[in-house]
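for the writeup, i need someone to sanity check this before i put it in the appendix. the sequnce is what the collaborator sent (i think, or maybe the updated version? ugh). structure was predicted straight from it, no edits. if anything looks off just tell me and ill rerun, i have time this weekend
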Amino acid sequence: MFPGSNCEHDVAYALGELGAAPKLIWHTSKSLGHADAVVLPGGFAHGDYLRPGALARFSPVMDVVREFAASGGPVLGICNGFQILCEAGLLPGTLQKNRNLRFICAPAGVRVDSNRSVLTSGIDEGTSLVLPINHFDGSYICDARTASELSETGSVVLRYIENPNGSIDDIAGISNLQGNVVGLMPHPERACDPLLGSLDGAALLTAFLAATPIKDETDHESQAEKIRS
């Protein structure tokens, strides 16, 4: 959690319903405890001053998030979390204002373009999902060489079916080369309950949990059983 995060409880609820045991960690923390995976939630970290994620990258917790990612730990950034991962150098490129200069809050169709990431592992490439988007700075940009490398290495995990914000190559989500760090602008946690209109997000978060190595088998036995089922 950062000052201005506003989706942390949504994420915690969705992951809890899928069998995880979420714990909120404040941005000044210098430890992740015994975390098996890390999620940077959506919102407006530090009020989006300067630009989204520009201040959050300097929060003490990001030092240990970088170490966690470097060790192969699963890291997921959703919306503002994606922006923070890019600002922190954990993912290439950056997010800029939507092409129409308007805030967008609507369902968006996306396609799974690669299943070599912790978020899409086990999901057939070409699978279509409908996920909510809720952003003003959601247009992903990078240089032509980076865009080519992302596509060639299977690091574009999600693409918009109909591009809502002007993102280069219709990119909705990317991973690092190892596939353990993923950022996406759509909100899978808001599509995990039929009462909210869709379970498509649960497919992604279930894959994320299933790809997460559990460090303490004793403490996580019930969690692991739920994930497997």
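The longest strand covers residues 104-112. Confidence is low (pLDDT under 50) at residues 217-229.
thx in advance!!
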